[in-house]
Design goal:
- By secondary structure, this protein is an alpha/beta fold.
- The protein has 14 helices and 13 strands.
- Strands 3-2-1-4-5-6-7 form a seven-stranded parallel sheet, with helices on both faces. A six-stranded parallel sheet has the order 10-9-8-11-12-13, sandwiched between helices.
- The longest helix is centred in the last third of the chain and has 16 residues.
- It is elongated and about 70 Å long.
- The termini are close together.
């Protein structure tokens, strides 16, 4: 008997949620008795660099610059011909195209959909129905994909709980009595302007609270200007992009996720939960799969500045609720432990390959 051979393709350059998920999956499969994992990734990407740093085996870089070329496709075709995978697992939309073009023989195609944005008509017609299985990171995404394709499965994205076994460290600067934390990219979908406007409604003379924002992106300077315009800049700290972000969760009191759309299965919600912190998030459908309102966190009406401000004040004023929600959140997130997610992927691989391959 030989292992089921799975070849992963990811073209991403940055180190975002999707790349983290691919990294965890490949790393977890490296010593698996049933699956042989091979990873093809962008040689200029942080996924490849982190794999090199960890000395992970079976990682093959390729050149990708958002433009398809015959040269790149030929190189990938030769790799696939040499590696003879049983399954090609595509982890982003560009990889989907490559998978469809490069598929050989009886090789099965798997695609992971991580965002809740609408799929284009062309993709629906020419790509999605070429795949043998679609992994959806939320039930909301699965419900949407079910309207135009088949063989969809929900496997929520994971969180590495091993990173959240430490204790609080004094890492935040300009700390208040209560410290709010946002972690994420500075893009329009993250709703950072909603958060800043909601935060501006708090009476800082009465509540000694500071908002800490960890992340980077094209809107960061604009958000800094907005904080000055709102006259809250003395109570707001911008950190930029940071490594070891679990330290920031540990040193905070409340995690706030004001995303206005696009979230698949929000990693920062899970990370906040893993650190035992109460999370306030917008009531996007995918967030409802993670947070039960007034049980392990708080959900507010999407884009509602007043409701978000009320939610923040509720937890600022009630330490017992902060602790209660944080403890319940920590238990909830155990369902998304990396080991469980990997096992669900392995089970799908087995189903597609008909069990062990002789």
């Amino acid at each position: 008997m030989r292992k089921i051979k799975v070849l992963h393709i990811d073209t991403g350059k940055s180190w975002r949620g999707g790349q983290k998920q691919v990294f965890y999956l490949h790393k977890s499969l490296k010593n698996n008795a049933n699956v042989k994992s091979i990873l093809l990734c962008n040689e200029d990407g942080l996924l490849y660099k982190n794999c090199v740093k960890e000395n992970l085996r079976d990682v093959i870089p390729f050149f990708y610059s958002k433009k398809y070329s015959i040269k790149v496709l030929r190189a990938l075709r030769d790799i696939i011909k040499r590696k003879t995978p049983d399954i090609i697992h595509c982890h982003d939309s560009n990889a989907m195209f490559m998978g469809v073009i490069l598929k050989r023989g009886n090789c099965k195609l798997v695609h992971t959909r991580r965002v809740s944005y609408p799929v284009s008509f062309i993709s629906k017609m020419f790509f999605y129905n070429k795949f043998d299985a679609h992994i959806c990171v939320s039930d909301d995404i699965k419900k949407y994909l079910d309207t135009f394709t088949k063989s969809t499965f929900t496997i929520h994205s994971c969180v590495n709980l091993n990173l959240f076994k430490g204790k609080a460290q004094d890492i935040l600067v300009n700390k208040g009595v209560i410290n709010l934390l946002f972690v994420g990219s500075f893009t329009g979908q993250k709703g950072i302007d909603i958060l800043l406007k909601s935060f501006a409604k708090i009476d800082f003379n009465f509540y000694k609270v500071v908002l800490h924002l960890v992340g980077d992106g094209k809107l960061i300077e604009k958000m800094k200007e907005l904080s000055k315009k709102l006259k809250i800049d003395k109570n707001v700290v911008f950190y930029g992009k940071k490594d070891s972000i679990e330290k920031y969760y540990f040193d905070s009191d409340i995690v706030v996720i004001p995303s206005i759309g696009g979230e698949g299965s929000c990693g920062t919600i899970k990370e906040g939960m893993a650190a035992g912190k109460p999370v306030i998030a917008s009531n996007l459908k995918s967030n409802l799969e993670l947070i039960t309102h007034n049980f392990n966190g708080i959900l507010f009406e999407n884009k509602d500045i007043g409701k978000l401000s009320e939610s923040i004040l509720k937890l600022i004023q009630n330490k017992n609720k902060r602790l209660e929600y944080g403890e319940k959140a920590k238990k909830t997130v155990e369902e998304f432990d990396i080991r469980k997610t990997v096992e669900k992927n392995i089970e799908l691989y087995r189903r597609l390959s008909g069990g062990e391959i002789s």
